[in-house]
Predict the 3D structure of the following.
Amino acid sequence: MIIMYKKKKDKKKNTIRIIIISLILLILLSVSLLVPHDNTFIKDGVILIEKVLMYPFTSLNKEKGQTQTESYTIQKNINSSLEKEIEELKKELELNKTLTEYEVENATVLSRNKSYWFNTMTIDKGKKAGIKKNMAVITKDGLIGKISKVSNYSSEIKLITSNDTNFKVSVSIKTNDEDNYAILNGYDKKTGLIKLSGIDKTTNINIDDSVLTSGLGEMFPSGIYVGQVKKIENDKYNLSKIVYIQTGQDFNNIHYVTVLKVK
């Protein structure tokens, strides 16, 4: 009888504990969304507290009678995710070996706003690491954007998938060893293609031509891979060509980036 009472009491405590932790996590999540992007001190504190609070769930799973097989499956999934993160970071570090002419700074993605998922992301490096506005940001798959805001310990990246009309990148389309210049500006969410404009209708461009940064008129170095031509059409006035390119980057899955710093 005493044992049964003790089990009920423990179960009640565990239930209360889960409810309290859940409420705290919800509050912390709300705080992290409301805190300005440049306040990395608070954001880092929130992440640390969340990790600490999640720890009791491991012991609760044992108390619920979770089998070793179930625990193994969960741990295997966690390990698989960690291995993927490590491999991605290794690829970023390998990328740095090919960028000897630039000073590079590796960074980790801190946060992304779900409402503006394809517009911006925040990284954990800022002024203290030598990051400046308008610096190019890349991954192993090429250009993803440029630095748009900088604070001491974090920076905001404006992605090339942003539909911000003020965000333009000068690029070069490589056609038969010739450079055809264009402006990268616009993103089609339905097709996942990026729009290039400012191309004369007589310009000869082919499907699968490579698109690189031109290095004209900004801090961007030339020769950074952007994507390949996948679609070509005339504008509505039949005066110029509109080209759509596909990047090799999965913009839903970016965890590590490299900032190219001007020496």
